[in-house]
Design a protein that fits this description.
Mean pLDDT: 83
Strand order of the largest sheet: 2-1-5-4-3-11-12-10-9-7
Number of helices: 9
Number of strands: 13
Distance between the termini: 53 Å
Low-confidence stretches: 321-326
Structural class: alpha+beta
Order of helices and strands: HEEHHEEEHHEHEEHEEHHEEE
Largest sheet: 10 strands, mixed
Strand content: 25-35%
Shape: globular
């Protein structure tokens, strides 16, 4: 693709964007130029996270952090033939996020009442010989799980959009993630799907915010559930990848269209598949997951094929890590 064609494409974007070929920024749009991103400079000088992964990047979409002046800014990277297009994140509208948080507060009480009733019905449905009843209860559970995640994301979006004090502490991440996926497996089973998880064989101690890490994982799982038909499988795997922790969630659902990939972590963005399937959601789940992972010094990789499935992976550095053989 010719540079002038790429330049014309970038000029149509409202977000700051630029194109890179062979580590050199070959063109920028007006919004990127306003942030003093210059043509002819090396993109490697801007990379704050994901340097090794960008060097190996070949497919899908990469979500990393750039260092621009004195600020850090998230960006998506998409391969376009022999060049890479970087699109920077937009700033949050805090007024809108705060209004959503107030609405979520009002929804929590009625949802809690409904979930209490449903919790009493699920065991009865599991023991029933009526297949139609079990199917309907699975649909109810998937809907309640999604509502819980949506209300939680609405409530926390304003808080996560600004810098907040971190409560990171050294934890056994192997044990922590095993517990998270063990709890999630039961919820997902009631939704008519199967969740598998494979973690490291040894304990891995890392500096993390356990509450926020759990939120990120649940949001990724919730996204996989939305786009995986009943009877499908979600497979999660966590491994040590050099000095990083790498966690992948793979589903065999409907996949993500290539034109949507650069945008799935943007606030309020919903793909056409999401609208067509009427799966609900506010477009906040993955943006919050990305915010959490970035605050751990990490970044995302996404690979997806339509009608085959998606794999969402995040990597975080093992800050103050120790390992013990079990």
């Amino acid at each position: 693709m010719h540079t002038e064609d790429i330049r014309g494409m970038l000029d149509l974007m409202t977000q700051a964007a630029f194109c890179v070929r062979d580590n050199t920024i070959i063109c920028v749009n007006q919004a990127a130029a306003a942030r003093l991103i210059a043509e002819g400079s090396r993109v490697s000088d801007l990379l704050y996270t994901g340097k090794e992964e960008y060097a190996e990047f070949t497919q899908g979409c990469l979500y990393l952090t750039l260092s621009i002046g004195a600020e850090h800014c998230g960006a998506s990277v998409t391969r376009l033939q022999d060049a890479d297009v970087f699109v920077l994140e937009q700033d949050a509208d805090h007024t809108e996020l705060q209004a959503m948080a107030l609405a979520a507060r009002e929804l929590r009480s009625p949802l809690a009442s409904i979930m209490t009733i449903a919790d009493n019905l699920f065991p009865l449905a599991d023991q029933s010989a009526d297949e139609d009843l079990r199917r309907q209860m699975a649909q109810i559970n998937r809907g309640l799980f999604q509502m819980l995640r949506v209300i939680g994301n609405m409530s926390d979006a304003a808080r996560y959009a600004v810098e907040t004090p971190s409560r990171q502490e050294t934890r056994d991440v192997t044990a922590l993630t095993e517990e998270i996926f063990r709890s999630a497996a039961e919820l997902i089973r009631h939704g008519g799907l199967k969740l598998t998880y494979q973690g490291p064989e040894k304990s891995v101690y890392c500096l993390v915010d356990a509450e926020k890490l759990e939120r990120a994982i649940y949001n990724i799982l919730s996204n996989a559930m939305k786009f995986t038909p009943k009877g499908g499988t979600i497979a999660a795997k966590m491994v040590l990848h050099g000095s990083k922790l790498r966690l992948s969630v793979q589903d065999n659902g409907i996949g993500i269209r290539s034109e949507d990939l650069p945008h799935i972590f943007e606030r309020f963005y919903r793909t056409d598949q999401s609208r067509d399937r009427k799966t609900g959601g506010t477009g906040l789940g993955l943006s919050i997951a990305k915010w959490i992972v970035e605050r751990h010094g990490g970044w995302f990789e996404v690979v997806s094929r339509e009608n085959v499935g998606s794999r969402i992976t995040f990597l975080i550095p093992l800050a103050k890590m120790e390992t013990n053989q079990m």
